[in-house]
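Task card 7
Instruction: Convert sequence to structure tokens.
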Amino acid sequence: MIMNGEIGRYDGVRFIEQTYRAKGGGSSGMGTPAGTWTNAKSDWIVFFGEDTVAEAVAVPEEIRGKIPGDFGRDRGIAWYYLGGFGIVHPTAAGAAQARIVMWDSAA
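Output:
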């Protein structure tokens, strides 16, 4: 399956290009404004390994309907889900077990 923004694969690794973040880098964070790259700087790369995130489901997704009122003129329908996602191996547990690695260029 080809992912949205996927530009290629190499040795089982997918390379996906994103366009929502301005290029240019900088030390103030990922949302830095665009700028020119000098002194061997480049954009950041984030690697996500296998078993990165886990989902915990308390109530699976379901469709719930509202009890009609006002002689059937007041109706409603909604999606309902109780759950969450979390990182399986955070870097605090040991750098050797980390599944998310961020690479940055020289100063």
